[in-house]
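Good morning,

Both structures are done.
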Amino acid sequence: MKKRLTQVIVSILLVETVLFGAPIQAGLAVSSSSDNNQADVAPIFFDVPYSYWAWEWIETLYRNGVTNGCSTNPPMYCPEDAVTRAQMAVFLERGVHGSDYQPPAVGSSTGFNDVSTGYWAAAWIKQLAADGITLGCGNNNYCPEELVTRAQMAIFLLRAKHGAGYTPPAVGGSTGFNDLSTDYWAAAWIKQLAAEAITSGCGSGNYCPDNNVTRAEMAVFLVRTFNLLDLEGRLFLDMNGSGLRDKATFNYDPERLADPRQPLQPDLAEVVDDYVSAHPDIKDGDLITIEEPGLSGYTVCAETDCAQTDPQGNFSLPIKSGTSGAWIQIADPNAGTPTLAMRYINIWNSAVTVPSYTQDVDTATMAKIAIITNCDADAEAQVCKQDADTLMVRDQYWNDTKIIPVGDGISIKLGADNNIGLMQGFLTLPFVSEYSISVSNYFDVDPTSCPSGSEPHSCPNIRDWQGNTKTYDQHTGIDFLASTGIPIIAAAPGEVLSVGYDDASGNYAIVKVNDSLVLQYNHMSEVNVTEGEIVERGTQIGLVGSTGNSSRPHLHFELRINDQPTDTFRYIVNLSLLPDPFAGSEVSYWTTDNFPQFSHINSANK
C-alpha cells in the first residue's frame, strides 16, 4: 500500500515541502523494462522476444557466458525445448566455475558405461561427477540423452550451489506444495530450493516435480542459484530525505536558486531549468513539483568492475557474488567542491506510521492559529481543531531510513532495492560516523512552564524522545552531547559575524545567515573559522568542547530571529506534528534542505 507523508516545513531555504513516498517492495527482481530502451536494441535471440516471459533471465544467462543458445545462425535459444542431462552438465559446470571454464581433457574413460570419450559433452559430464554433483542414473550409467525433471533439477542445483556433501534439512510436516507429499523421494530438496527463493513452483501452489525442465526454466534456475543478475540501480538526489526516489515540491525562489553560496547540483539545475522553461508564467513563490533527478557521472564499483552513472543516474555492473546485499563503492565527482559534494547516503528501510493523537493548546495560542481548520470541516487536514483548546494530528506516514556519511569511494551494503539516495543537506550536529549524538537540554524560555527558582522544575511541554518530562528552564538553545574534538559543521551558509570567548558561552562562533537569522555555536574546544569568513553548509566551524559555563563536552546550538532565541525544532517544523515520545528526539535532527526523518545514523563501512 502506498505510504504518504504530508508535512508543513518552515525552513531557512524552503518554505513548503510536500513529500510523497512509497515503500520499496522487498525481494530480488529483474529491472523494469521501462529504463532499458528496448525499442532501440534488438533481442539477442530471435526466438526470445522482449514479450517472452523469461527473456531477461535468458539474456542474463547469455551475458554471463553460460549459454550461446541452441543455434548461432540465426541466434536461437529454443526456450521451450526440454533440457537433457548432457546439456545440464554444461550449464551447471559453467555456473559453478565461471563462463571461461573448460573442463580437463576426458582422458581414456568418462567413468560411465553409456558416455564414450568421443561424446560431445563427455568432459563436462566427467567433471560434473568429479565435482560430486552427480552419481549418474544407476548401473554406472549417466543417461546423457534423458530429460531432466524438476525434481532431479532441485538436487543438481543445490549440490552445485552448496557442494557435494550438502544435505537439505528434514522436510518436516509440510513441503509447502499441494502436489508434493512429505514422503516424495526429493521432497526435502524441493522444499529447500523454495526456501532459498530459487523456485516458487509451477503455479497454483504446485511444484510439478515430474515435469521436464525447459531451457527457459533452466535459465531462471541458474540465474537465481548462482546470482548471475547484473547489479542494476540508480543514484538520485534525495531532496526530501525520504530515502525513496519520489516527487519533491518546493517554492520557486529565483534568488535562492541563483545563490552563489549554494549553487544547485548540476542534475537538479537542469531539471529545474526544464521545468521553468515549460512553465513560462511561473512566479516567485509558485510551487514546483519535480521528480527527484538522477545523478550523472558518478562512479559506482562492485568488486573489480566499475561504471559511470548515465544521465538518468542508472548504473549496471556484472557481479558474480550476487546482487542481494551486494557491496558497492560510490565516488562523488564533486567531492572536492564543498558546495556541490554529497554529504549523506540515505537508504530506505521501512515505512513508519505515527498514530493520530491530540494535543492541548491554550486559548491564546489557539487564537493565533486561525488558519487551522475544524476537524469536522476538513477530513483531509493533517492538523485540525478538535475543539476550542484541542488540536488533533491525524495519522502520519514516515519513511524509516539509514543515513550514512558519504566520502570518496565509500563502501555500502545494498538492501533489497538498488535505488540509492544521496543528500547535500547537513545535520546541525557535530557529526562524525563513529559517534552517537544525543540531545541533553531542550529549548525552553517559557517561565510559566518552569517557574524560576522552583526545584525541581516542572516542564510538561518539554520532553525527551521517550516522552519523559524534562526540567530545563530559560534555556535558549539545544544542547548536543558529544566527545571533545568532534567536528562541528555549519548548518547553513552565511558570514561569520564574530568569534570569541566569554564566561557563559566559552569559545563561540556566530554566523549570519540573512538579515534576520543568525546561528550560534558555543562551548567549542577550538574555533576553526574567522570573523568575516564566508562559510558553506558543512564547513567545519570548530571542535566540540566544554569551555565556558559547561559541565561536560557538548555543543550548545542557538538560532535567533531578529535577536530573539527561537526553538530550532519549532522553527523548522511549523507545528510540532510529532507526539511527545518523538518530539525533540534524534528523529527531529534539523537539516536545511532535507526533511527530518526517522533516521538511524550508521557508521561508514570502509
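Second structure follows.
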Amino acid sequence: MNIYAEYSYWWLFLTVFISVIYSLLLYYKNKKEDFDKKKLWLLSILRFLTVFIISSLLISPIIKSTSQFVKKPHIVFLQDNSESIVLTKDSSFIKNDYSENVKSLIEALKDDYNVDTYSFGEEINSNLDFAFNQKHTDISNALSQIQSKYSYQNLGALIIASDGISNLGLDPYYSAKALNIPIYSIALGDSLQQKDLLINRLIHNNLVYQNNKFPLKIDVIGRDLKDNNYNYKVYFDGKLIKESDENIDKDFYNKELNLLIEAEESGLKKLEVRLEKLDGENNTVNNSQIAYIDVIESKKRVLIAYNSPHPDIAAIKAAVNSHENYLVETVKVGDLQKNLNAYNLVIAYQIPDNSRESSAFVSKLKNSDIPYLFVLGSNVNINKFNQLQLGANIETRQRAFNEVSAVPNKNFYEFQLSEEFEKNIADFPPLLSVYGKYNQVNGLQTILYQKLGNVETEYPLISMGKYREKPIAFVFGEGLWKWRLYNYSEFKNHQIFDFLLEKVLQYLNIKEQKDRFQIQHKRKFDEDEALRFDAMLYDVAYEPITDAEINLQITDEDGDSYEFLFSYSNNRYSVNAGRLPPGKYSLIAKTQYGKDKFETKSEFIINELKLESNRLKANHNLLYRISNEHEAQMFFPSEIEKIEEEIRNNSEIVSLNYEREKFSKILDWEWLLALILFLIGLEWFIRKFSGTY
C-alpha cells in the first residue's frame, strides 16, 4: 500500500509545526486555565491530533492499494444448431447420445475452467440448444461474435461442433484467423456423398396478371443416382397441371424443367412441385417445394409529368419500377396524349412553372379524382402553385432557396417508418427547398421535417394526407437523385429511398384511402420470421381512433384458427403473432366503434425455408483446416472425451494472475470523520469535567 498526495509532502512538516504551535499556545501559554500536568499533556495531544488530521487533509492524500487474483481460462463450446445436422443417417445418435456426451464434457471441464456454451444458426445464442431447427447456418458470424466478446478476456480455447456447412456469411476459415487460440472441432454429419434427388429452386414471377401465362423453371439436382428414372408433378391452385417422367443420365445430374402456367383467377395461388422418392434416398425433405404466386387483375398506372428534364425524374421512376405492381410513364406535360383518367396516380414534378401547358395540366389534375404527389423545386412558380389551392402553400417574398436535411416526425402515424429509415435518413444529402413560410391544410401530416443546418424547423419536407376527400402528398425539395445515389453508396441497395416512395404511393391508392379501417402487413413472410400486423382506425372526420379493441383471427389452410388482440402504441395498433408453420393463411380483423362495425379481410403466405436440406454433404475439410491452423485437432462425435485430455495437456491454456490497483481518497473515509469528532468530543469532555470549556 502506498500513499500519494496532490501536493508536496513538505506541506506535512508545516501541518505538524502548526499543530504543535497551536497546541502549545492553547494549553501551555494560556494562564487562565489551570490543569495538572497529565491532563495538560492529554489535552495538548488531543488538540494536536485534531488539528494535524484536519490540516493534513488539505494536501488531498490518496492511498493506492494493490490486490492480486487468479482468473481461470474461458473454454467456449459452440454448437451448430441448424437443421442439416439431423438430416443425415446418424440423426438418431445426434439427437440422443451426442447431447449427453457434450454435457459430460462440459461438466468435466467446469472445475478448472470457465466453460461458456453457445449455439448458433443464422445468429448466435447464449443457450446450449440441441433442437437442430435453425433454417440457416452462419459459422463466420458465430466466430466473429466470439472474437468480439472475448477480445480482452483469458480465452483459452474454442470447441466448435458442426458439419462445416455454412450457407450464409463469409468463409469461416478466414473469420477464424482473428482468433489466436486453439480451436478444437467436432465433425458432425456425413462427409460421404449421399444419394439425393432434390429441387434446388423454383424460378418464377412473384406477381402475374390474371388470364396471363407465366413461365416456371424447376431446377432439379440428382446426386449419385445415375440410370434412375423419376416422376415429377406440378400443382397450381390445388390442381394437377403437369406430370412427367425424366431420366437421370449422370452421377451429378442437373436439369432445368420449363413450364408455362396460366393464371386464371386473382389472389394468392399455391404452386407446388413434387419429386418421387427413389431407392436409396435418405433425405426426402427436399423432394418438394412450394411457392405462392400473387395473381392480380392489373397494374397501377403511374404518370410522372414534368416540363423540364431533371435527374430526380429518373430516380423516382427507378424507385417506382422496383415494385412489380406499378406501370410507370414519364411524359412532358405538353406531349401528354392520354386522358388523366387513364392513370391511377400522378406525380407532378416541378410544375406548375411559367408555361401555360403546366398550369392547364395542374388545373385538370386538381379537378380530377386522381391522387397526386407534387415535387417542388427551383423551377416551380410559387405564386401559381399557391393560387391553385392544392392543399399547401408557401409564403415567400423573394426567390430564394435553402439546403435542408430531413428529420423524421415522431408523431407520424399513417404508416410505420422502419427503424433503418429513421436511423439513417438524417444523414442523407440535403435537398434544395424553397425559402418561405409553409402552410398546410388540417388533413395533411408531415412525414419529414426540414432541418436547416443544426436547426430543426416545423416546416414540412415531405407530407401527405387528404384534401377534399382526395389523397395527396408533397415533397418540398429537389435533389432526390442524391438520396438514391447515397443510399446505394452507403448500403449497396436502394431500400431506404424505395421504402419511402413505396409507402407514399401505397397511401395515395384511392381504394385504400376510402376505408376507415385498414390492416397493413407483408404479403410474404419466411417461416423463421415473426408475423407483425399493423392497423389504423379513423372516425368520420378521418381522425385516428386510439381506444378501440381490434381482434385478429388468422386461419390456416386446414381451417385451424388463431386469435390475437391488437394493442395501441407509437400512434398505431399493432400485434406480433409470433411464428406459424409454412403455408397460406387468411385473416379477418374486426372492431367496433360506437355503432359502426368494421371488418377487413386479407391473406398472406409463409414461405418454407429448405436451404439446409439442399446440401447435406458435411464439409469436414473446413473444420480440419481451421483446427490445424490453430494448433488443435478435429474429433468425431465418438471421440468427444479425448477433447478434455487435449485441453488439459495444452500448456498454453493456463490461468492468469491479475493485479488490481485501487486508489481511494482519505477524505472519503467516513471513519476518519468519526475519529475527528471523537477527538474533539473527548477533549471537550475532559475540559468540561475539569470545570472549564
